[in-house]
Predict the 3D structure of the following.
Amino acid sequence: MVSMIADEADINRATFYAHFSNKEDFLEEMLYELLMGFEQAILDVFQGKRKINAAKLTPTTEVMFQYIEAHQQAFYALSKGHHDFDKRLEKLFHGLFTEKISLKQNHHYGN
């Protein structure tokens, strides 16, 4: 597996091991970088905005799909190769929408 990673990255195994102790270290770093970029892409949508209209397509929807499309090979590889991928993605969304992005709804009933 390390040989395949090194070949794909066009590096030798010694270079790989100079940065990572094993395949799991590499996958962990790859997942961390991918999810932090994903989180930042979502948060960037809200920069300078205090309110959005939740009745319309939220601005994060398009950004999320664009990010996933741009990084589809990494998402696919990590979904198959990282034992904790699903849980980490779920944790990212939970943290975003409970700690970093506050959603409030205004209900207007009657006139």
Q: What stands out?
A: The chain has six helices and no strands.
